[in-house]
């Protein structure tokens, strides 16, 4: 089944070329893009089923590792591909229903579809790359597409926000490329399987330098404090589907990079303490920023930053329980955070604003919209028995098992963050849905397709609660595989480390 591995990369790139070729035929572009994303989802599900025995590997061009390019699907990357392809498909259907790609000034027809497909390919490259350089390439492919998507429409606000985003992305890419170059200089390879056996033999100071450079590069992309200030200014101005897919996926690619490199290359060490303090600061600064917001999109952007800290907490613990909790929480957060941004897009479409000071009365005038907001809001807040509660419970258990003063501080910080998240959403609910409207305006009718796709994603978030048992078992198996390292290394190199 190794032939499945390159499909999540090949399908969207080929489809992007076709979408460019038929750029004057919007219906053809829609069919090509939707078919491609269904194909990626099918290939990802097939990989998820077939990676339980050992990782699937393709050596591109039949060049053997570590000389050639290795594409690797193990439990972690297969799971990330499945959830990312499901989310990108739902967001695309939402965008099509909104007419974002059908002549809406926000999204030129000739640009949106191929760019969205290239973004999808970049995400897949990042998850499948078996070496640091192609992990960098995957980041650059998705970032190049994101530069276009975040400035769709060319309004003053979007160009300004896009400029901040581009500058920060380029800065992190430079740091990442320097880290790749220094890694090759120190070890003679960038293949991650070979690096796993060589990196312990280099000078400890150089090893720490490489680890910190990679962590800084991933921290910018994942929006970890103090490198997170760009996100709340960049995301809210983009079109709703673009903001949703960015919030759900792009920061998680940075988290994936940290999961992969910390477990495979560096293991436990002094950097874990730095990560724990960064996780605590990210949680608290993010959620306190959300408390101060009066705009729903900015509020959601700050909660996004805050909950990135929970994932970093799991990674920093460097234990099987911590990694499993982080993996489970990543899957939960991708789904729930994306659905919240789509619901914010529905509110903006209907009311013409996301300002909480101008909204009101939606619980009576739009009860379905109220439910679509309340369910993922409670899920993200960690209300039992939803998946957000189960993910946080796993992370708290990992913190208690670590039994260090700092881990107990992080446990307390996680609880405070969850309580403040609930407060933030209760405040938003009260203003937007419960209180009477300040400035009553005739609502805009919402297309059924927009409501349907947002509802589907909210239901997927709820389904994670019912699938929590097998999903957590899978996350445990993925965490064990990450810590063992041997299956990944043997699959690529064909020899024991």
Task: Describe the structure using short key phrases.
mainly alpha, single chain, 76% helix, 2 domains, 497 residues, two-stranded antiparallel ribbon
Task: Please provide a brief summary of the model.
The chain is mainly α and 497 residues long. Helices cover 76% and strands 2% of the residues.
The helix count comes to: 20
Estimate the global geometry from the Cα principal axes.
Answer: globular
Instruction: Determine the strand fraction and express it as a percent band.
Output: under 5%
Helix coverage percent: over 70%
Order of the strands making up the biggest sheet: 1-2
Helix and strand element order: HHEEHHHHHHHHHHHHHHHHHH
Describe the main β-sheet briefly: 2 strands, antiparallel
Structural features, described:
- The chain is an all-alpha fold.
- The protein folds into two domains: 1-264, no CATH class; 268-466, no CATH class.
- It is built from 20 helices and two strands.
- It has a two-stranded antiparallel ribbon.
- α1 runs antiparallel to α2.
- The longest helix is centred in the middle third of the chain and has 32 residues, at 156-187.
What is the element layout, followed by pairings?
Elements: H1 7-21, H2 26-50, E1 56-59, E2 70-73, H3 75-97, H4 109-128, H5 132-150, H6 156-187, H7 192-198, H8 204-222, H9 230-234, H10 240-266, H11 271-291, H12 296-317, H13 320-351, H14 362-365, H15 367-381, H16 387-402, H17 405-434, H18 448-466, H19 468-484, H20 486-493
